[in-house]
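Sat 14:20. Reprocessing the chain from the morning session after the first attempt stalled halfway. Input below, unchanged.
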Amino acid sequence: MKESKLMNNRFLKIILLVLSIILLFSLFSCDPTDFLAGDSDATKTENDTLPGGSEGDSIDVLALIQERQFRELYPHFASASRSRYKLDDIIARQELIDDRIGLQSMQFENVRKLDRASDDRITVYEMSVVMQTSYGEMSRPLTLTYLYDDHAEHWYLEYSPALIFPGLTDDNDLIVQRLTAPRGGIYDRNNIPLAVDGKGQIVGAISGLYDTADNAEVAELLELTVEQVDAIMSQSWIGDNMYVPIKTQMEFSAGQLKKLSDLNLEMRLFDTRLYPHANSAAHLVGHVGEVTKEDLANDESGIYRERDMIGKRGLESLYEEDLRAKIGVRVYLSGSEKQILYEVAAEAGKDIHLTLDIELQNKLYSLFKEDEGQVVCIDPSNGDILALMSFPSFDPNEFVQGIASASYQALLDDSRLPLWNKFQPSYAPGSTMKIPTAMAGFNAGILSPGTTKTIIGKTWQPDASWGPYEIARFTVDDSPQDLSRAIVISDNIYFAQVALEMGRDVFQEQLANLGFTDEVPSSYPFPAAQFANSGSIGDTVMLATSSYGQGEIMVTSTQMACIYAAIAANGDIPAPRLLMSDEVAIWKENVISDSNRVFLQQAMRATVEQTHRSAAYRDFAALAGKSGTVEAAWDAELEVVALDSWFIGFDLKQPNMVIAIQEQNVHKSSDRPSAALRFGQVYDLLYFGSSDSDGE
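Finished this time. Tokens:
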């Protein structure tokens, strides 16, 4: 009995000792929940301690991971982790991974202690990591493990590469694969491609094998100048046995390809953007090119990477957001079993369908390609832009992969400015403005078809207040003349008197009713017309000269074609439509009565029959139109006034197209064609497929 009592006392002492040890341990150990700021599921006691042993050492582990502050976090890793992983290696890998995914921010959600995996030596937490990246949102599970250090009497975080990106280990890598899709195509009204992704051809030479003595023969074969080939083959970066690109185009002829090997040239295929109609639509369609450092600096959304393509000019640039493919991404962890963590499919860019008729555009290019100027063709019934061209032009295919410096310099040196888009700006319209002035006079009630004026002599001024300034007319006719005669002989004085009779305010008001100074209702950024540089016509001299398209009045050829469309069709000015997806719209309704519209048609027909008979009259059509000659500027080189030639007209038999032509700098040579001559030749092309017709 005594022995049994002794055993019971010993057992009680053992129990008390164990309880004391547990109590002491709870008093002196620290709880890792202090590392997890904001963890509502983690419980703390008054005796919780932190690394370093004081409250002042408290750190927010999750905040440091979020902020990628691994340098500050490193001392709080377990000693085994610090022995295994060097700080610089951790930071280098973290920066590499963050850059790959374009990490923007990181949040931790549903942080919870995993009781079943935790004890007095280890504490485990689970959570979700939500990352905002340049590819979108990614969400991954993460486990954090804290180990208790008996010697330091602290909890320390066990490091693994998963802290950089959940799922990352020592033996795998995070791979970010960009998924691409085709850029949207640009097509004409008949679904003929103007810009598409495809395979291009590039002809180049292998340095060392190629003999520069063949430069002249190569230039002839590839339709380049000898100077261009010389410059290409003498570039400083060329080393031994290197492929030197000479010319890029959509497709070389069979005859050209056959001769390549004899000259130690080689053709290679590559993925590129193709412009099948090359020069004819270059200024409108534009081209793409590799992103520059400036493009990347301006890319706030992180869409582009080095060597990506971006629209550089024309519609390729204007509609870049629609045309570019939406890049997809596949994020996966490498290893024996590839683990796809995140995937978003790439989306092809949107196709754009234009109202342009590329067959018409190509015909026009064959006629105008050596000239200097612009042409626009409008369907008067709906405002569809059927052709829109600047000439001379360039081959956009050469710019996609980077044009050779010699070829680019040749374009820059061309005085006809082939790189300049001539249909984009506004110009002084010259005497083509007399038709809108007549329309303004009709609507103001001060002009009718029968309005007759007797003008004596070549020059005129209203009174002495003009000083020495006088308005001159080209054709002197001292007999009484009505409006039709004034249009036929293009009498500046007649129309100046009409404008002065209206007065500045009425003249501007009536032109505003024709769309002047309005924002042009078009998907293409045509500038608004102006009355004057200051916004409003100044004195009476400017008012008078504005009536016949001089002064400071400026307007695009497209807007002028739309105004003439009201005469060709039903009295409405259509909105110029370039995209088939845009609704057909009337810009200005009922701007001219039917009787006045027919009158102007006949006056413009008489202008072709009488004034421009040798240039524009055709017996197979009833061509009608109005010409204009503009004193554009002073040509300092030739010491003469620079002249631009205009003609706007249509075929009364088939009034399905208004054509506006501007031939620039016609003063430079007597060989330069007038716009009226080209107008007639356009109809030769349309009716017979050739511009060699003699008209009558």
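The first strand starts at residue 105 and ends at 113.
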